[in-house]
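Structure (tokenized):
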């Protein structure tokens, strides 16, 4: 098939560490695997570490680099800016880029606090001509895409339960201090980091909003950590784990659990949905698999069905990659999301709906309501958290 006529779009990235690498990879790969009609040109990278920035830019394929993010805002040749820095800077960077007329894709959570997230939502709504996106990349695992389609087709019927947990184990007492353990930089701990992902997934898959938090626990077990490179002990003022119960608009019950202290669980992001027509289950550590229980199956053969979501003909994004059965990984979720972002900016439909700042603000409201519920030890209707 002939490729579409491709227009070019200069992009800039802010942040050169974990997400800086993941996103750089997506910019390099997307045009080689997807036919989006819009090609990202890796124009400029900005980050704070001047010693490693030039080599990072060269290694990852960025034409220019700067330690001043303002250079990006001031450069009229740049159309699209990707914010991949810690949570405390999402608001300032996004607002500056929107004010400069750029499209913005921001990492999750939208911000460290609800107030900042609200300012970002409002700035996006007022930024005529600019579009916003949030990197809730797990929406774009092909198996999650299949789950979304089965749910939209009504295969699960009325939804009864959502059970979501995001368990990691890296946050023990020997782990040194980083921005992720400091409230002024991160906003919250496991909650904003991990519950953000599973609240987004649950809202996306169920297709309804959460209307009430019915109870929550937020706990910090490790209250001090050593600053890297020194013996200095510093306070950690974010949660190591947060668990909460919630209700969806249609009446479904939900439980969410995020922790960095679940020994043996490396990146165990699991979501299960039970409805009158069946159940769906997915886990990031086996991200190509969707487990499906169809309640209409004859009792004799009924049971969980393991679907390897790699079919070019049937599973979202799979056709862009490898022959059926040749699985995808973590990095593909970013490239799949970028392909949809490029489609939207090129006036085409995304394969699956994309989260913008307004959508991510709804996730942030749920996170905030859960924190209020934990601190006040009571149920909190979402209508009280605006
Ligand atoms: N979608 C996902 O799967 C996923 C995974 C990890 C992290 N994240 C999110 O990505 C963001 C970054 O996390 P990370 O793990 O890459 O962090 P990191 O600590 O590995 O990297 C942060 C980078 O931002 C740079 N930086 C910080 N403040 C800056 C500023 N004001 N101007 C320019 N550069 C600045 C740092 O120098 C560093 O290069 C966070 O919001 C985090 O929640 C998302």
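Design, position by position:
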């Amino acid at each position: 098939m002939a490729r579409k006529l491709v227009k070019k779009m200069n992009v800039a990235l802010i942040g050169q560490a974990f997400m800086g690498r993941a996103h750089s990879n997506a910019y390099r790969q997307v045009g080689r695997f997807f036919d989006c009609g819009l090609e990202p040109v890796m124009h400029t990278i900005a980050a704070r570490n001047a010693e490693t920035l030039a080599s990072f830019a060269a290694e990852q394929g960025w034409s220019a680099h700067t330690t001043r993010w303002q250079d990006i805002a001031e450069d009229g040749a740049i159309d699209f800016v990707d914010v991949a820095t810690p949570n405390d800077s999402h608001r300032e960077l996004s607002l500056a880029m929107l004010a400069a007329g750029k499209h913005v894709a921001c990492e999750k959570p939208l911000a460290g606090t609800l107030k900042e997230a609200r300012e970002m939502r409002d700035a996006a709504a007022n930024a005529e001509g600019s579009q916003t996106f949030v990197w809730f990349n797990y929406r774009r695992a092909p198996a999650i895409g299949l789950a979304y389609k089965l749910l939209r087709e009504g295969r699960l019927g009325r939804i009864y339960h959502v059970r979501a947990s995001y368990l990691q184990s890296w946050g023990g007492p020997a782990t040194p201090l980083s921005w992720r353990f400091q409230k002024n930089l991160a906003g919250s701990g496991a909650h904003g980091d991990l519950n953000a992902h599973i609240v987004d997934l649950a809202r996306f898959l169920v297709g309804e909003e959460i209307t009430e938090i019915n109870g929550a626990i937020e706990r910090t077990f490790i209250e001090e950590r050593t600053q890297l490179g020194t013996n200095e002990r510093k306070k950690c003022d974010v949660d190591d784990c947060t668990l909460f119960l919630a209700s969806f608009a249609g009446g479904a019950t939900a439980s969410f659990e995020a922790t960095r202290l679940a020994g043996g669980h490396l990146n165990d992001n699991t979501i299960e949905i039970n409805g009158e027509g069946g159940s769906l289950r997915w886990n990031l550590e086996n991200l190509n698999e969707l487990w499906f229980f169809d309640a209409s199956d004859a009792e004799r053969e009924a049971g969980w069905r393991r679907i390897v979501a790699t079919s070019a003909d049937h599973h979202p994004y799979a056709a862009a990659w490898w022959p059926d059965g040749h699985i995808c990984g973590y990095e593909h979720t970013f490239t799949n999301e970028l392909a949809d972002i490029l489609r939207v900016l090129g006036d085409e439909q995304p394969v699956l709906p994309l989260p913008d700042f307004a959508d991510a603000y709804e996730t942030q409201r749920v996170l905030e309501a859960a924190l209020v519920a934990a601190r006040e030890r009571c149920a909190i209707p979402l209508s009280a958290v605006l």
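Reviewer-requested clarification: The pocket of nicotinamide-adenine-dinucleotide is lined by residues 14-20, 46-49, 69, 84-87, 89, 107-108, 135, 137, 193 (CB under 6 Å). The chain is about 30% helix and 25% strand.
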